[in-house]
């Protein structure tokens, strides 16, 4: 029944050690989003893909990259994690239409040591 | 620039009480508004989606209203239960920078005391 799946649920990395977070979806949606959410804050959009078109938010650091090899999968790569990158990372999808609902995965909690 | 504000930031009520969570947004040119629930350390669960042409949506003990012209939405929870304890986030969908985006409020942290 799972629609948006994120792996792993918890990720621990060391300062400066690259890490990749994974998201997959069974909804066949065109659009996939990555959000960063720090404690007690609103989710902040990092970037999204509309099909293969990548859309970066203006204030997303270069340290964050993304790949979407096919409709179902999207990856978030953090090239050199800093302590300030510790957060919950949320993946979401929708079908890119005007009035439609966005569906979220369970999130990956990233800890940076 | 669209801003979404949720008041109060935190709320503690005894079990059984009816309660209202508030969400306001500055730009009325939205396509829809979603209310989400977030349990500690978990992802977002969609509770209700209200289209811009609608005034309210109901699901079980939850009722969400939307007044687009005044930039307000409320989430009404009837007969609250300890299991309702969570953070409730509202988000508006709009066209921005050539794509559809959700802009979130910071949430209301709800505690329902047994």
Task: List the topology elements.
The complex is a heterodimer of chains A (113) and B (114).
Chain A: E1 4-7, E2 10-13, E3 19-25, E4 31-37, E5 44-50, E6 53-56, E7 64-67, E8 73-78, E9 87-94, E10 103-104, E11 108-112
Chain B: E1 4-7, E2 10-14, E3 19-25, E4 32-38, E5 44-51, E6 56-59, E7 62-67, E8 72-77, E9 86-96, E10 99-104, E11 108-113
Parallel strand pairs in B: 2-11
Antiparallel strand pairs in B: 1-3, 3-8, 4-5, 4-9, 6-7, 7-8, 9-10, 9-11
What structural keywords apply?
heterodimer; A: 113 residues; mainly beta; 4-stranded antiparallel β-sheet; 0% helix; 51% strand; B: 114 residues; 6-stranded mixed β-sheet; 5-stranded antiparallel β-sheet; 11 strands; 61% strand
Helical content of chain A stands at under 10%
Oligomer: heterodimer
Largest sheet of chain A: 7 strands, mixed
Tell how many strands the DSSP assignment of chain A holds: 11
Radius of gyration of chain B: 14 Å
Secondary-structure element sequence of chain A? EEEEEEEEEEE
Strand tally of chain B: 11
Report the principal-axis shape of chain B.
globular
Distance between the termini of chain B: 41 Å
Structural write-up:
- The complex is a heterodimer of chains A (113) and B (114).
- With 113 residues, chain A is mostly beta strands.
- In chain A, 0% of the residues lie in helices and 51% in strands.
- Chain A has strands spanning 4-7, 10-13, 19-25, 31-37, 44-50, 53-56, 64-67, 73-78, 87-94, 103-104, 108-112.
- In chain A, strands 2, 4, 5, 6, 9, 10 and 11 form a 7-stranded mixed sheet that branches.
- In chain A, β9 and β10 form a beta hairpin.
- By secondary structure, chain B is mainly beta.
- In chain B, the strands form 2 sheets. In chain B, strands 2, 4, 5, 9, 10 and 11 form a 6-stranded mixed sheet that branches. In chain B, strands 1-3-8-7-6 form a 5-stranded antiparallel sheet, with no helix packed on it.
- The A-B interface holds A 6, 31, 33, 40-43, 45, 48, 50, 55, 58, 88, 90, 92, 94, 96, 98-107, 109 and B 4, 31-32, 34, 36, 41-46, 49, 51-52, 89, 91, 93, 97-102, 104-107, 109.
């Amino acid at each position: 029944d799972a629609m948006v799946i994120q792996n792993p649920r918890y990720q621990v990395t060391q300062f400066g050690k690259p890490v990749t977070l994974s998201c997959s979806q069974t909804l066949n949606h065109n659009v996939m989003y990555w959000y960063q959410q720090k404690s007690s804050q609103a989710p902040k959009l990092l970037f999204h893909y509309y099909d293969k078109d990548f859309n970066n938010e203006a204030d997303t650091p270069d340290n964050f990259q993304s790949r979407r090899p096919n409709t179902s999968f999207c990856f978030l790569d953090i090239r050199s994690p800093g302590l300030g990158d510790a957060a919950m990372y949320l993946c979401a999808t929708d079908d890119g239409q005007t009035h439609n609902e966005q569906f979220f995965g369970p999130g990956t909690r990233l800890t940076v040591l | 620039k669209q801003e979404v504000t949720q008041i109060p930031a935190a709320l503690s009520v005894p079990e059984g009480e009816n309660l209202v969570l508030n969400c306001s947004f500055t730009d009325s040119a939205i396509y829809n508004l979603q209310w989400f629930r977030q349990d500690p350390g978990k992802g977002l669960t969609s509770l209700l989606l209200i289209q811009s042409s609608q005034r309210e949506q109901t699901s079980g003990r939850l009722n969400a209203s939307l007044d687009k012209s005044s930039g307000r939405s409320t989430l009404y929870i009837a007969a609250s239960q300890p299991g309702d304890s969570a953070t409730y986030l509202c988000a508006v969908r709009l066209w921005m920078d050539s794509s559809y985006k959700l802009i979130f409020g910071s949430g209301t942290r709800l505690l329902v005391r047994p």
